[in-house]
Amino acid sequence: MLVDSHCHLDLIDPTLERVEALLAQAAAVGVGHFLCVSVSLGNAPVVRALAARYAQVSASVGVHPNQVGDDEPDVTRLAGLAADPLIVAVGETGLDYHYGAEHITLQQARLRTHVRAAREVGKPLIVHMREATDDTLRILAEERAQEVGGVMHCFTEDWPTAQRALELGFHISFSGIVTFKTAEPIREAARRVPAQRLLVETDAPYLAPVPHRGKQNQPAYVRQVADYVAALRGIEPSALDAQVTANFFELFPLARKDQPGLRAASR
Ligand SMILES: [Zn+2]
Ligand SMILES: [Zn+2]
């Protein structure tokens, strides 16, 4: 079994028919669990509803750093939403100066809000970090994010940066970007991250891996990411599947290893 540790099922297509088709396509290549990640307070209920409906889907709550003009979370409200037993993590949060440089102050305050909420409920963080390495790692440390840990998702930095995140107690998750031609520094990190701290993801609908690059991404394609990382590390694909799946359920203990299908009606 393999897990897609970060996807946005509802952003691919919110219709249940299409979601079920995506889950089935992923299951056909051995992908049996999905962490569907919230990007705004607006879509958080949609994400939660998917986890309430499908046993193989877990949900988070958080506001993406590039999300502007939507409802702004405070610690009390975010912690209240995150206390829900169906919510396994807080995020995605973080800093992204590539698209969001004009909102740096807002992003930094919002990241602190997320870390405080995560610590309040004792759930791990899902961190998005793009062109903001020093500020992200500094704020995580200042807010004592290591008390809850989490994942640096869609990791696009080099090995020294990975080491800094690992020292903070974070896992490192690689997406399809690791397969891109120009990604040699990311590949070096993917070779060297300790086995117990490694995850893989699609970040679908974004960033399809080679050979699907340019098409809409979907959770089934985490298979290509996992096989690629296995080859980089010189291990069997089945060994990598087992390792990242074990890592996922250890990092997100509230994610349940249920058989695929509809959850009991009571949830
Ligand atoms: Zn992200
Ligand atoms: Zn994402």
3D structure, described in words:
The chain is α/β, with parallel strands linked by helices and 267 residues long. Helices cover 42% and strands 17% of the residues. It has 11 helices and 8 strands. The chain has an 8-stranded parallel β-sheet. β6, α8 and β7 (170-174) form a beta-alpha-beta unit. α4 packs across α6 (104-121) and α10 (222-233) crosses α11. One zinc ion binds next to loops.
Layout of SSEs?
Elements: E1 2-7, H1 9-12, H2 16-28, E2 31-36, H3 44-53, E3 57-61, H4 75-82, E4 87-96, H5 97-100, H6 104-121, E5 125-130, H7 133-142, E6 150-153, H8 159-167, E7 170-174, H9 184-192, E8 198-200, H10 222-233, H11 237-251
Parallel strand pairs: 1-2, 2-3, 3-4, 4-5, 5-6, 6-7, 7-8
Helix pairs in contact: 4-6, 6-7, 10-11
The structure holds zinc ion (ZN) (2 copies).
The fraction of residues in strands falls at: 15-25%
The portion of residues assigned to helices is: 40-55%
What are the distinct ligands in this entry?
zinc ion
Number of strands: 8
**Backbone shape:** globular
**Largest sheet at a glance?**
8 strands, parallel
Structural class of the helix and strand makeup?
Answer: alpha/beta
Average predicted local confidence, pLDDT: 95
Count up the helices. 11
- Give the uncertain stretches in residue-range form: none
Q: What multimeric state do the chains show?
A: single chain
**Helix and strand pattern:** EHHEHEHEHHEHEHEHEHH
Alpha-carbon distance between the two ends: 25 Å
Overall radius of gyration: 17 Å
| Physical arrangement of strands within the biggest beta sheet | 1-2-3-4-5-6-7-8
